[in-house]
Amino acid sequence: MPSSSSFLQRLLRRTDPRDALRPLYRAVIAEGRQPHWYLEGAAPDTLDGRFDMIVAILAQALIRLEQQGGSQESVWLTELFVDDMDGQLRQEGVGDVVVGKHIGRMVSALGGRISAYRDALTGGADLAEALRRNLYRGAPVTDAAVAHVEGGLRARWTRMGCLTRDALLAGDLG
Question: Could you tell me the pTM of the whole model?
Answer without folding.
Answer: 0.85
